[in-house]
Amino acid sequence: MQIIIVGSVAAGTSVAAKARRNDESAEIIVYEKGPDISYSICGIPYYLGNEVDDLSELIPRDKKWFEARYNVKMNINHEVTAIDPVNQTIRVTDLSNGAEEEETFDKLVLATGANVTIPGYVDSQMKNIFPVRTMEDTRHIDTFIQEVDPKQAVIIGGGYIGMEIAEQFTHKGIKSIIIQRGSHIMSSFDPEISFRVQEHLQSNGVEVYTNEEVTAVHQDESHLIHAVETRNGHRFDADIVILATGVRPNVTLAQQAGLLLGPTGAIQVDKHMRTSHENIYAVGDVAESYLSITGKPFYHPLGSTANKMGRIAGDVITGGDLAFHGVLGTGIFRVFELAVGTTGLTEQAARKEGFDVEVLYNLKPARAEYLNGKELLIKAVADRKSGLLLGAQAIGSEGVDKRLDVLATALHFKAKVEDLFHLDLAYAPPFSTTKDPVMYTGMALHNAINRNRPLLSPAELVGKEDDYQIIDTRSKKQYEASHVQGAQHISLKDLR
Hints:
The chain has 496 residues and is α/β, with parallel strands linked by helices. Helices cover 25% and strands 27% of the residues. The protein is built from 12 helices and 28 strands.
């Protein structure tokens, strides 16, 4: 059996590794358009901020290592330009010399990843506007910073990468300005959590502008950008511009081959990662996930998901029966020593799905206060009718990842909020409180549901604080409602 894999970052290499473990006789051929394989996209900001000393640390495996380890043929700098699904062939161009060849496959795996969304005002001649996606992008940004020593950066987009780049540039002495098209940064979080992050960014010297869309750039004769302009007519000076504008699945080959795309725009796959063609599979950022809570299509481009999909495809192709169980949209990032994470449905998403929503804000030390335990906020969302946990968001300077992982595990196994209280979690004063914040969240949410209080939207919450459950074991203060740039947010900044 000849297995051809197009793409060799997280998903593609996972396919090859699992397929080889299952079948020592299969011929496995990998084609990669770029010069690097199996690299850490998520580590890029930390290299740019000098937390990672050498770029090679983000590329732990090269072509030679992978070929020797897994007995595969790894072709770097080779672009697959066409697929013939009827005759099961592909057309490949060797980018080093322009030579073309045709290759036959028994099984084909598309791991073509995603592309950064490039706005229309960007052209290839511009010298100081950069996407952040590949090792080549990273090299270009690093070289520019070393040669030019920029003093001010404009970061277009307020998602995970935008937050991380702002943090790292600030540490590097580059003033950062974030411009977000939507009403709040971190659109995968509820507004009041995002607003807390925004306040933290601003307190660390990062300027944040929401409801602003960059529509033009101003450059000199040498094609160096010196300013960007927004639809509202505002102008921001810039020595370097970072495109943190999100990504789109790279489905060019899939469309050319006539494969079905899902409603998210990614390639539609079943639970075994098989596309609409029985011998073609898709994995990683080019493939559509589904949200395990609702069963609905969901796009979640993340390295951990890509690795999981790759392993499943490699197993199924070689006779295994692994199946994809969906995702929860779990994500976490760090910004200036503050950790921010989410899993499952936000309050906004849960209401949109029609759930009878109960919300709890739990503010508690992450560990014993007498050992300087730092404040941890958990916002949890549950379904009143079933008592099921639907999602959670957490923010704090310690303990966020631990609690988020517990909550994600509970969501995966369809836990009810009352189940959280019964978890036998690790306790000692340096690590937790006697009632861990997760346990306390479950206990308080269960109480709130049993009170059967009326359903309120965030806008209706103002002046009706008692209709939401708020746990602050330290000060017992209520939160305040505030208005930020015309949009209503629930500010939790005074819960101390």
